[in-house]
Amino acid sequence: MTVTDVSTGRSARPASDTLQLATIGAGRIGSNHAEIVARHVPGATLAAISDPVPGAAERLATALDVPLATTDVAEVLDRADIDGVLITAPARAHTDLVVAAATAGKHVFVEKPMAVTLEDADLAIAAAEEAGIVLQVGFNRRFAPGFAAARAAIDERKVGAPQLLRSLTRDPGPFTADPSRIPQWTIFLETLIHDFDTVCWLNPGATPVRVHATADALVRPDAKADGHLDTAVVTIRFDNGAIATTEASFSALYGYDVRAEVFGSEGMVTAGNGRRTDMTYYGADGIQADTARRDTELLRAAYTAELRAFTDAICNQSPVPVTGHDARRALSIALAAIRSIKTASAVDIAEVTK
Amino acid sequence: MTVTDVSTGRSARPASDTLQLATIGAGRIGSNHAEIVARHVPGATLAAISDPVPGAAERLATALDVPLATTDVAEVLDRADIDGVLITAPARAHTDLVVAAATAGKHVFVEKPMAVTLEDADLAIAAAEEAGIVLQVGFNRRFAPGFAAARAAIDERKVGAPQLLRSLTRDPGPFTADPSRIPQWTIFLETLIHDFDTVCWLNPGATPVRVHATADALVRPDAKADGHLDTAVVTIRFDNGAIATTEASFSALYGYDVRAEVFGSEGMVTAGNGRRTDMTYYGADGIQADTARRDTELLRAAYTAELRAFTDAICNQSPVPVTGHDARRALSIALAAIRSIKTASAVDIAEVTK
Amino acid sequence: MTVTDVSTGRSARPASDTLQLATIGAGRIGSNHAEIVARHVPGATLAAISDPVPGAAERLATALDVPLATTDVAEVLDRADIDGVLITAPARAHTDLVVAAATAGKHVFVEKPMAVTLEDADLAIAAAEEAGIVLQVGFNRRFAPGFAAARAAIDERKVGAPQLLRSLTRDPGPFTADPSRIPQWTIFLETLIHDFDTVCWLNPGATPVRVHATADALVRPDAKADGHLDTAVVTIRFDNGAIATTEASFSALYGYDVRAEVFGSEGMVTAGNGRRTDMTYYGADGIQADTARRDTELLRAAYTAELRAFTDAICNQSPVPVTGHDARRALSIALAAIRSIKTASAVDIAEVTK
Amino acid sequence: MTVTDVSTGRSARPASDTLQLATIGAGRIGSNHAEIVARHVPGATLAAISDPVPGAAERLATALDVPLATTDVAEVLDRADIDGVLITAPARAHTDLVVAAATAGKHVFVEKPMAVTLEDADLAIAAAEEAGIVLQVGFNRRFAPGFAAARAAIDERKVGAPQLLRSLTRDPGPFTADPSRIPQWTIFLETLIHDFDTVCWLNPGATPVRVHATADALVRPDAKADGHLDTAVVTIRFDNGAIATTEASFSALYGYDVRAEVFGSEGMVTAGNGRRTDMTYYGADGIQADTARRDTELLRAAYTAELRAFTDAICNQSPVPVTGHDARRALSIALAAIRSIKTASAVDIAEVTK
Question: To the nearest whole angstrom, how far is the Cα of D226 from the nearest Cα of chain C?
Fold first, then answer.
């Protein structure tokens, strides 16, 4: 069903063919991506779902009319007619799944973080390159319309040389999770990793060189003794002089808040406003507007666009918009931030990458 | 493929089945709707496209991988496996197509205006009722997220009793069409018809009773002698006392502008802001933001939602969100507005409906 | 203290002199203007206050350190050292006071409406011209920063030829006044008169020619039988083809709402947003912002600017920014609107002015 | 003209009296403050102006009708009828002038920074306390309506416990000053000092404990060799766990940008939007709005309010809204930031204050 395009090492396929994709992981974000692929990605079909939790894959497959549901990921990877997989399993399992899928010759879309150590990141990148597959990472901000427009303005030189950048991620509150079940450093490895990628992507051509992090358990102070951190600020210095601040919280009572700002020699762009619709209400308490409460709502267009881009990269050899190297770069900032917390000092990224 | 549900007179179909739809009219808006049905409406398949212009249906069918393309609408209506049709032909052909499709037992989504005379509107409504089909009209504002949220706020009594309403439609400029090819009264029958429906829908339970219209050819003054009107304001009085102003222009240089405002005893809601994304640029000329330039961009979510609602009304017997009676009501306002222009005076709607 | 400038007929005064002004009327708006003149108008001193209500002038004079307080307006007009007066008495007394003050050689700033009949308007204008005094009318929107910037954009041709205009005034709610004490037609003569001036001023060079009005008692339906109207929409047609809609309500629960919009061949300007400050709050109920609840807060900058302009017109012979002729024009629209209500039809302004 | 209030150590004065103030320093900001006191502060009179530059005080005094102009500050301080002074001289002269004025028994409003060493700050505070005078520092953000509303929301517990704060100051571009004439560390001591105060003031009751700074010469890279810094980010940790980021640039091409954001356990407040008016223009290039280009325009209301508060503190013994201790606290952050730059590491504020 696919033929190798020798010149690029990637597979080419006739346009009239439908791409057969599978989802590995049927949790919250896996279900979101499965629904998008099943219904909103032209040229792609969701052919299989796997999840080790008994019943999880079946339920989702029934809802989406997907022919194959299994608890055994190998059953998916062994299928010759599956062209690619979306890895939406827990973060710690990502790298092994990327390597297994690549080795099986499947194209891979992997949710962030692709890896939580640089060694694993290198393994994933090497496996993908060796297999000649498309490897795309789920940094969804890049596909949000406002963020994409911000980057376009930067590319058009409207901002000039970036000097000050800001990116933030605040999960919606109230925070109801059990902190003891959240892996340590999650705020850096799974939340701020988005912002680390965003500031790199919005400062094109520059390399992050130094990091200073501050963090605390302000949402759940009682969990601090266990090493749980839910509030963090990371300052990142780039080799072109630009200074970025990134910021995360696990509980924004007003909703899901994802914003960016790039200030440069010629102007500024901002993206993100947290609004759910363009409706505004004026009442006895003043002016009111709704906020988005779920990432799957706030970032719906972004999730759809990134999965279409993945399909496009496979079918039309268009450039992969978020590579394994991008994931590795964001990870290096996260690791430097963790070291900054441990040492209570600023850290050169070279310290963690050498 | 369908079975009659005796209790409602509408057809019921098993959930696992895919609805087979056809598009009648492969022009600009027909192509837009065809693409949405083909790719973004779960449970529906685009099975056929017809357009009398040689090649038009074929080109679109090829792009969307649709099996049947024809210049003969009868070929579509004769197909037993087609469940419903989208009528996106020129406005003057709408009623005949609605009647023909209903008579053939097809569910009908018809673009506005459903009819341009009340007699035709009655014919269409009667044909649909006799055939027991779903008849839905393309008043898309109702499905735009901001407008839908405004209506929800009204339903929650946050606005209180509506007193002053506003709805406007401004097509994006510059105006490049040939005015002589635009049917007379188009600004009322095809443009403001949206706003007439919007203000009725945002004033639930009230009936429009009296109309005053002012109009001119300000965009193309040279075409005025031919009866071409491109700028209009229509004031509508409701039986609950509320006063609505509706406004249209054929050339908004800044983009596509669709907005509404409802002011009542307890507050106000507004919907629509004309922005393309949430990106804002700050440069030497101040603050700047992009506007939407095409309805298919500005109203993308609305077009998708209305076509999903159509599918849902057919498959799940959910209420038809925009009925033939809604279309007739908006048309009665348009006809009163036209009489108001002709007589240079305010007109009771009863004058045109009796 | 003043010398006549023969060439203009207006008085000139040395720059080092302080202008001596008096306030006639110590009610809500009179107190507001008195405070501004006493404290925030360079080159002017508040020298006297008169109000027929015993004690009213005294209380205000004490608070503002003004030497003369009286219940007898003649005492003010007889004073040779008073250069000008601010007339902030009830509307029906305006014309007589303008004529008396002009006859006494005092410059006049008169709150809107300058007159409620065209005959009175002509008397006021003639008295001012004969006396060679400055006569300025209190159309404050012209001095609000956003409105002034809108007019500047129009003057810079950024909007092109105005085609559709909107101006609205909504008094803050809840409405607590006794409707029986509000003179009939107040919504046209005292509220919408602002908007009538605004749309004329924002459509420079054009003349209003025809009016259609709709009005009702929606805030206090019980008072309708007494002829009380609290909600109105007036459509105005100009000789350059432009169509304006003006709108008023006596009870906007969310605050004081004063806005304008001008749409033209090259773009659109809007002014007014109802916000009190640039603070925004994001909480569990979404996004919130404060609104202004009083005109003296919302229009503070405008009130100050218009009184400075009045001083400037007297001291420096700068052009009078709002003339008696402007007041007469706005009044002619109000009178046509009243006739439109009475006759339930559109009315040519020539019918009321001939 | 003043009598000592023994209980507070501050002078009391009869309300009917006018406070006699003098301006020391007739440069840009001195002229701004002088105009405000001369014309817009009820109860205060500008009685004298001094500036060592020949002619500077005279020119300003003539424009504002001020009786005394001198190049010798002693002439002002020796005048028994002067109640207070505004110190708007260059920053390095502030402390000496505060001490001299306090010793002369004058109340003091001093522009930021009050001092550039902690020793000087202590001298100024001690001199003021010994003299029993009012000592107020020019942290104007506190008086900007949006910032004041933000603080009010915090005081009303709408934000909950502050967790993440942001304050930024960007001077308007293009940058045209000669970098060699700007004292080293100005970005911390004169620009960010505002933001240091803002984040302390918006985090009531908390104490800043640790600082990390990053800075560069990005606006004028050629001046970096001389130690000129024009772009900086400072992260501040508070003892209640909150983390603040403050940010400055010497050249925002789009105008003067002063904003703040406070995120807490219950919500978020933001203040500042950079707009000049509420006018919005929609044209062929999209949506546009004007920005403020001068602090004296953007912060006009704040400057007026702080000088009224100063007068009020003197005349009515109302609390001094910005004290010498507030200035010392902001200075301690600035000094820690400078040390952070020098050592390329995070710095405990205790290191610079012990």
Answer: 39
Say whether A216 and D161 touch across the interface (CB within 8 A).
no
Give the Cα separation of D291 and D256 in Å (integer). Answer: 7
Q: What is the ipTM of this complex?
A: 0.94
Using DSSP's 3-state secondary structure scheme, residue A193 falls into helix
Does residue A6 carry a pLDDT above 90?
Answer: no
- Mean pLDDT estimate for chain C: 94
The DSSP 8-state label assigned to residue B174 in this structure reads S
B178 to chain C, closest Cα gap in Å: 18
- Give how far D278 is from chain C: nearest CA, Å: 5
Taking the C-alpha atoms of residue A165 and residue D247, their distance in angstroms, rounded to an integer, is 10
pTM of the model: 0.94
Q: Which two tokens stand for residue A149?
A: 């427009």
Q: CB–CB of D267 and C279 under 8 A?
A: no
Residue of D nearest to C290 (CA): D149
Q: Which of A46, A155, A279 to mutate to test the interface with B (most CBs of B within 10 A)?
A: A279
Q: How far apart are CA C36 and CA A148, in angstroms?
A: 49
- Bridge-based pairing of strands B135-137 and B107-110 is parallel
Question: A275 to chain B: nearest residue by CA?
Answer: B278
> Looking at per-residue confidence, does A221 or B2 come out higher?
A221
Residue numbers in A near D158 (CB within 8 A)? none
**Mutation test of the interface with chain B: which of D168, D170, D251, D254, choosing the one with the most B Cβ atoms within 10 A?**
D254
pLDDT in tens, A31-83: 999 999 998 998 899 999 999 999 999 999 999 999 999 999 999 999 999 99
Taking a C-beta distance cutoff of 8 angstroms, is the pair A304, B40 a contact? no
Residue B180's φ and ψ, nearest 5 degrees, are -70, -15
CA distance B326 to chain A (A): 23
The model's pLDDT over D233-280, given as tens digits with 9 standing for 90+, comes to 999 999 999 999 999 999 999 999 999 999 999 999 999 998 999 999
Measured between alpha carbons, how far is B174 from D284 in angstroms, rounded to an integer?
9
Q: Concatenated DSSP letters for C252-319?
A: ETT--EEEEEEEETTEEEEE---BSSS-EEEETTEEEE-B---HHHHTHHHHHHHHHHHHHHHHH-PP
Contacts of C174 in chain B (CB under 8 A): none
Task: Tell me if C280 and D270 make a contact (CB, 8 A cut-off).
Answer: yes
Nearest CB to A164: which of D160, D243, D249? D249
Nearest to C281 among D158, D281, D290 (CB): D158
Reduced 3-state DSSP string for D17-78: CCEEEEEECCCHHHHHHHHHHHHHCCCEEEEEEECCCCCHHHHHHHHHCCCEEECCHHHHHC
Q: In what order do the strands lie in the sheet with C84-87?
A: C68-70, C44-50, C19-24, C84-87, C107-110, C135-137
Query: How distant is the Cα of B246 from the closest Cα of chain D, in angstroms?
Result: 20
**Secondary structure E strands in D253-331:** 257-264, 267-271, 280-283, 286-289
Q: Are strands B3-4 and B11-12 parallel, antiparallel or unpaired?
A: antiparallel
Q: Is A317 left (phi over 0), alpha (psi -120 to 50) or beta?
A: left
The residue with tokens 């069918």 is B61
Distance CA D354, CA D339 (A): 14
Residue D96 main-chain phi, psi, to 5 deg: -60, -40
Asked whether B173 and C159 are in contact (CB, 8 A), the reply is no
> Cβ of C231 and B163 within 8 Å?
yes
- CB-CB neighbours of B39 under 10 Å: 17
- Check if the beta carbon of residue D154 is closer than 8 Å to that of residue D162: yes
SS3 breakdown of chain C: % helix, strand, coil, rounded to 5? 40, 25, 35
Residues B85 and B23 sit within 8 Å (Cβ to Cβ): yes
Site from B254, B257, B279, B287 to mutate, D interface, most D CB atoms within 10 angstroms: B287
